Queue: 4 jobs
Job 1
Amino acid sequence: MRLKIESMAYGPDAVAHADDGRAVFVTGAVPGDVVEAEVVREEKRLVKARVTAVLEPSPDRVEPRCPWASVCGGCPWAAMDYAAQLAAKRDNVVQSLSRIGHLGAERAEALVAPVLAPGASWGYRNKVELAVERRRGRAVVGMHAQGDSGVVKVDRCLLLDADHEGLVKAVSGSLSYLANSHNLNVERVGIRASRRTGDVEVALWTEPSPFPRAQAAKILGDATGASSIVRVMTKGPLKARKLAGTERLDGNGWWQERILDETMRVSAPSFFQVNTLGAEQLVQLVLEALEPGADDAAMDLYSGAGTFTLPLARRASWVDAVESYGPAVGNLRHNLERAGIDNADAVGGDAGREFPDEGADIVVVDPPRAGLAPDVVEKLSTLDARAIAYVSCDPATLARDLDRFEEAGRFSPVWVKPVDLFAQTFHVECVTLLRPRS
């Protein structure tokens, strides 16, 4: 097919239209390109294709900095100029609010600010994950290939902080060596590295089975100088794995990062934003939205290890923090105690079931990609709060939830500010301010 590329989807692919009007999702293209593309899959309403030749390159096409960008799934937008990436991300947010959130094109355009870029577009990550597969009897450690078609062996990741990009080669080499003499059953490997604290953690995600603990700790420790090496054990179906336990193989057993004025301890199973500068931008936007005062009662739902809980507690009279993931609750309690904060309560459990009874003047919610459960939107909509800050990592579920808030009739969005925590990818974080209707 010969195609003129029109825009980027919320995903790795670009979008064009075939002669019969069907949308064509094209891997490897940039808006403005004229390409020759090979059909990968045809459906009634759409076509999947991949670029075989760029006939006329877009003005926004650039040479990717990463030599593996065309085969690795980690930076699918790397061939697009960064300013064009930011514009495409804003457009995706606007389209989601307009179509899924039923806000209409004009209102969505007015709500969504330009995308904020908190730092460099390469070398910004404090964490990467490596994939592991067996190939002809040997372990291959690297990055997920485009389209999840196996593992690409790489010797560094240019998205990881430049001071630590060599950790990828060190870890993959160590595991490949270990796997020659041991059945490791490693499913994936998390590497966390902080330029600010100097902490490096290697987390091996495995099944709960026999494991060469001492050898793994020795070889990985010598290769990486890690301050923490841990094993995270999970069990159950592949798409619904549950935590079965963690083991400290060497070092602290946890990783630390500094966010603005706070030092956060995070254990390997717990979520933490992969972009430290981006996380600071999110905190600043939440504080800007909520304007916490000394007499305010605050609520932090899906609080994690306390990224928003701690700065809110420094400014408000009280914070009720709710988090469902056990390891993160433990991290939150430690971080509050270490910071000397005694005006916050860390509650473990589902946000709907453990919804605080006391109400709140200000609220922040930072749910996972699935967004807010319907009962949480209902309960938030009964509050006599003056502001809600909604931190979202998925424009589609954000739009759906804003539609639910609109239907409930209590809160409406005032502004949506996207933040680019994930340069070279389609992902974008948003902070939305909701206030009571006049």
Job 2
Amino acid sequence: MNIKQILLSLGIISVMGSQGIQASTLTLNPKIDKYVQKQLTSRQQVKNSVFVILTEQADLSAADSLASREEKGRYVYDTLRNKALATQGPLVDFLQSRKVSFRQYYIENMIAVENPSAELINELAARADVARIMGNPLVKLKLPKTKNTFSLASTPSSTGPEQNLVRIGATKVWENYKVRGEGIVVAGQDTGVQWDHPALKRQYRGTSATGTVDHNYNWHDAIHSQIDTSAKASVCGYDSKVPCDDVGHGTHTMGTIVGDDGKGNQIGVAPKAQWMACKNMDNGVGTPASYIECFEFFLAPYPLNGNPLKDGDPAKAPHIINNSWGCTADEGCKGDEILPSLKSMKKAGILVVASAGNEGPGCATIDAPPAWHSGLTLAVGAFDHRSDNIAYFSSRGPSAFDGGTGPNIAAPGVSIRSSVPGSRYESAMWSGTSMAGPHAVGAAALLWSFNKNLIGNIDQTISLLEKSAEPKTTRENCGGLPGSHIPNNTYGSGLLNVAQAVCSMSDHCAA
């Protein structure tokens, strides 16, 4: 092997058509993660974008000493954005001098750089103010194929609460404690929402008492252009100023949280809560960048066309966020891309609920963020409320990231009837932990509506839901933890029972 071949094999030089040998645009710098390096093995430019993480990061520890969720939210937002504004200037100037497109973030002090060349990545990695460079892979929404056979036609109108709501005790909370989620704002980070669906329009925070609608601070589209150019373009368009759902997934999950059309279709756990949303996928395909952008919007919502670094208002933040998506290693995610976002949410007193995943029934199949970040999210597995058995597809613990026992609890997730675009209702094929997570979001909304002192107390809320769950054992032994143990890595602490959770806080228990 001659010197040219050796240099080529090491990536130190590359052949560029008729121009012969050119200095390689990628050096072996430990700041550059393997996904980015792999992107550049066959090309001289990253196809998507990269995250340039700055060395200086904000310290949010003082948030723990603040009393109210409002104080926590304001402190977290101000601290994060002030750090970004104080430190990103030189890097911004550098990127502008290179005439490349980029987007600034503050929830983690970083900048996403679009389609950088390997030469530019080298220059960025050499900077003292840059800690590392991470990839931003495409991530596809995954839903299991149900083993049940149901008609794909829209189901007829219901005449009362769905049985999945009855099973978790939601109707008992409504009847015995007169609580339906009043005063609580939930959020959906998903494929979007049909905002004017009959089961959702009244609960949309953008709908006033007089019926006028204002999407400012209540809706954000984090999809600015077509993500997967090999697929069809979104029917919602891009940078949509009106809530829209191009897949149906987000409309379905939101329906399980708050849905009720006032005409018998009672599909939501907390029908008097309000909702807001952020679209994080393009026809079911998202990226860590779109997920992080939605977390920024929820931490401090901003108006349409607003600047998140300057126009955010943490007073308008939701209380609870539903997240029915993941970002797996086989798609290129390292697994810690959204970790800073989750830490910021918790510091701000915002509860993040995450579907455990649909990779079961094997052990350690809670294999992707956000669910695998134990202690930062309420991870939810799926059971069939008709039999009380775990769904075959429900991901089992322990967390493949940190080894934590998971999920926290299990909720109904098999053939769940809810709202879908077109102002319809369907149960056909709607199975997944994506359907289970929203039950827990609604349950938490009922808890916080009943006891305002719980609002913003994340660990206490999760503990209450775990302690009030119906214990459920199994023959499955995962992660060295017997299925006879409570919690276990199949059902977690057990089956969601929100009536028991509320009862435990009441002087007149009526569960």
Job 3
Amino acid sequence: MAERFYRAPCPGCGAPVEFRSAQSTHAVCAYCQSTVVRQGEVLSRLGRMAELFDDHSPLQLHASGRYQGQAFILIGRLQYQSPTGVWTEWVAWFDDGSQAFLSEDNGAYVMARPRELQRDMPAASAFRVGATTAVEGQPYTVAFNGQVSLISAQGELPKMPPLGFGFGMVELRSDQGEVLSLDYSRTPPAFSQGRSVALEDLQLSGLKSESAKEESARQFNCPHCGAAVEITLANTKTLSCGSCHSLIDVSQGVAGELRHALQDEPVAPQIALGSQGTLQGTAWQVVGFQHRMGRSPGDDESFGWSEYLLYNRQRGFSFLVDTEEGWSLVRPITGAPSLGAGARSATYLGNRYDLQYQYDAETTYALGEFYWPVARGQRSSHRDYSSAKGLLSLEQTPGEQTWSSGSRLDAALVAKAFGLANKAADFQRGDAGPTGALRGLGCGTLILIAVVLIVLVLLLSRCSRCDPAVENCNNGGSYRSTGGAYGGYSGGGGSHK
């Protein structure tokens, strides 16, 4: 990296403030938190920066790595807030003098570079979530449109909006995995373009150690029962109290107002929180669990399913989804598939997926920690698509849409992965048919068995105590063949969050 940089005393306390990049106009003094602006060779103090929200990220200032063959170093951090919580963008300075942003994105990361707009862009209000638009001749889907504000910053920074000033932000995503960001804090809006990156592929050095993360765990008392609650997960926005199971919103920081909601219908996850297992070659830890209910348009019957939030320090987050039809492993994607006529198909990275299910969903119970604000009663609309390549799921709220992709898993494999092979029978779902047990029987016997099974199902459906609002009713009572979501909810997603 370049050895020359500009250093001057902080106007607030006299400590040295450094500028490595010529593109940086602002900096935050590491000693007194003064926000300073560079004007030529003079530093002027603008005020004091608010305290950073400790997000427990493994990233930190001066961590370095490589991207697309170029070395970079993280020189600044900006924390933004929207109605869905707080997220972070890191300023990356490359050895050719250019800058980029390494941003949180649905539990993963996006590396985005600033670009010049080739045409005037309409006002933020002109973009409707779910609509398509063209940028430089390429189609994009509007994935997010909302008001955000800068709440804190650290290190060396490009031009930034005033602290606490609300402005519009729009995210556009393509079926080739690209994400475009329009920042309306200035005129014309700032424009950046990026793609998903994995931290392990950036060859990072200088990350926080695991022990440092453990020592800085945040603790507070539950606002409902007073029991001690500890936050250990990176980017936690919501977590449950281990004593009374209340859901606690910490998206504004522990020092902020702690909103909570009681949960008086506990649902026991089949895989315990904290469990560790290896799926598709990656070691995961179960850090969150939520139960959700769905209902197809015009259908009076509801169905339930469960989602386990999995975490890996380098890979980020994935969802292990348990539906009546089986298990699947999915994670949010950076891009947005293009939809065919009537949204009956979706195309992503050149692969076509056909619509299987369409339904509305509601969160009914949650345990553990989540990187987005979770609340009972959260509602969203869904479409699930499938092909031989795997699964795609669209989840949409009024201000945002999130796509997830994944693949089905064998029930026995899931049980074995988390050390529950002795309970493999409990993991079987509707995808495990009875053909093996019936092999060799005659047609007359099969018909008789079918008649008996139909009678039993009718009887059980009348007396079953299974409540789909609090559990998966797949081993007794009714069976629904058109239910289940493939994708995990990511209400904290979109817009570089």
Job 4
Amino acid sequence: MANALQSMYQLIDTFWLGRLGVNAVAAVSLSFPILFLILSLGAGLTLAGSVIVAQAKGAKNQKNVNYSSSQTVVVIFFLSILLSFVTYHASEPLMRLVGAGPEILTESVIYFKYSSFGFVFLFMFFVFQSLMRGIGNVWLPMYIVLGTVLLNLVLDPLFIFGYGSFEGMGVAGAAISSVITQGISAVIGMIILFKGKRGIKIKFPQMKWDFKWTKQMFAIGIPSSLEQSTRAGAMTMLVVLVTSFGSEVVAAYGIGVRILSLIVIPALGFSIATTTLVGQNIGANQIKRAEKVGDLSAKIAFFGLTGVGILLFVFAEPITAFFVPNDPQVIKESALFIKIMAPSFGLLGLQQVLNGVFNGAGFTQISLLISIFGLWMIRFPVAFLLSNNTSLDEVGLWWSFPISNFLAALVGFIYYKTGHWKGMLVKGRHQISK
């Protein structure tokens, strides 16, 4: 639920910007993959922090829970400042890189620049959210996200269109309203961690740089960061292909990807829950119980998201029309994209849950390899070949999604069933030091 609410920031932006026109939607759509790519590094490292904390929690080592949390906060804080500075100054070259045309370049750069200001806030809340999940406290982050999303519902139209003497700022207003609400959530999260009344207490003395701990965090987190960066990079390359078909197809792709995010986010939620439970059970040396968690999560994700996919298939056109009500061509194209993707959503959920098992075991390299296979060896080549060498044109881009979802899920499931990851744990080769 927290992840689904988090994705509402982009959906709310898309809804209101759709009232400005197709170019506004296209400008933000171009920014999204690059923003996701930048955020991937921090997200992977916060996952590493949550895995370490989960295993410490399973081993009932509260001292290590607090210390690991403090180290995670300081590492991510300085990383977020660096990324915010770099991306702000590289915004225009990045937008040109993904193929922003002259009609949307200025607005896409503006949106990206303002969004980069919020990286520090966004990363700090990611840290809070991951650490709370690591100890099994999942409701508190959800309540905070719910409050900020409701606030964003009010601020978005205010900053985009203005009210009374307050002048609207268009695309820039959408980014500013998101940064404000993200800042509020980050401050609340850090206050809770410093007070220490919710299972984790961070302290400034424990934030001194610890090379050994940081090395352990990077060993777990870098493969996860690369896995998410691989996903974001593939999305970015697809945008480059999409832009060659014009603004209407870019807008259709942007809406379809946001609908896809409604599936990816809950799938990631199942994955994170699986990571936490697997990590805690491994910390308690309950490897068989960790496998049972993986089996159950796989069933829930596959059948649950398959059901959601069927509903999205049936209601694809009215859902698309909700975002861009006055453009029949974009509605038609985006609805087709959703219908082609939707039947494979259960497979996407299955793959994400299995990644959660491997991540919880500290075996993040496997998740990385599966993502590289599915996205770079299957999705992008298939998208390129079908859209450029067949009569399908842009529809070939849409078909690359279900094909890659199927093959990636198949590979992940086969590896999971071989039990090799369990064998590594029994031998103690992937246990995280306590």
